[in-house]
Amino acid sequence: DLKATVSVLYWMSPFSGKHVIRAGLTAVLAGVVNVFQTGVNTELSGGFHGGLKALQAAFANFVIGTFCVSIVACLHRPGWDGLGDERKEGRPMPPWYALFGGPCGAIYVSASIFLSKELGISLFYVMLVTGMMVFSLIIDYKGFLDFAPKTIHPQMVIAVFGLLGGCIMVQDLGNNQSKLSAGEQVGYSILVFFSGFLMPIQAALNRVMQNSVGTPFRAAVVSFSTGTVAVGVVAVIAYAVKGTSTYDGSPWWSWIGGLLGAFFVTAAILSAAPRPSRPSRPTTTTS
Q: Rounded to two decimals, what is the model's pTM?
């Protein structure tokens, strides 16, 4: 009958493929937003003077991001759009390490403000993506942080390094506007490479947190809150050691880095979501 035919066609549809495409497009958009966020935060740091400007800009980013994502988390109703778990009881307590998603983000944002200005945005992201992709493959292969282990085929590794090679070839590495020495450029590039490790770790930790709090927006609130505390503590300690810092002003749009960060963190959680299982194949009866 018609109902059985529709059920069979639904089962035969590329259900998992649709999820991969949706997650992939979300990840691409998050990557674009992340580039803009780095530029915006760097512009904001330019309004501060003193040795603490990267920390001050990062702290402003996290405070604004916490406010923005908290509004969304309060307005969002779990389950109505398929994002989140409606259960109020029976969720597992989050493991202690899930709270470190925010501090990972705080380290990355602070480092990106300083290092992107020194290396230039293009070289910065070449090295960052290298670190991200290498460690993402490790997470997939080993199955860290509640992710199921996956087989890493040789062609995947070849594709990754082929993509990275293409990115490096289009860079004008000889045009170093920051006038760094060769040693400084190599050293900063290595730091950016390892900073790239933090982003897949943060996405995985925030995904673990979502399993306990129910929605990606609530997980993002926890991430931004712990990140705000982390960067705030470091900023206070640095202020006590280094002294005063002044703010001379910056464009209004330099304050939207937190909003962009809120979108990026939430999108990263959604992109890291496990692929939904294919529905069970329906049985048909003849009459």
A: 0.76
Give the model confidence (pLDDT) of 8-29 as tens digits.
333 334 344 555 666 667 777 8
Q: What pLDDT shows up at residue 5?
A: 40
Q: What is the DSSP string of 228-283?
A: HHHHHHHHHHHHHHH---EE----GGGG-HHHHHHHHHHHHHHHTSPPPPPPPPPP
- d(C-alpha 215, C-alpha 81), whole Å: 11
Say which residue, 145 or 205, is predicted with more confidence: 205
Residue 104: both structure tokens together: 């990972």
d(CA 257, CA 217): 17
Beta strands 48-49; 246-247: pairing state: antiparallel
pLDDT tier at 124, thresholds 50, 70, 90 = confident
d(CA 130, CA 136): 10
Residue 181 Cα to chain centre, angstroms: 31
Q: Taking CA 123 as the corner, what is the angle to CA 175 and CA 166, rounded to the nearest 5 degrees?
A: 100
* Angle in degrees, 0-180, between the axes of helices 101-119 and 121-142, rounded to the nearest 10: 150
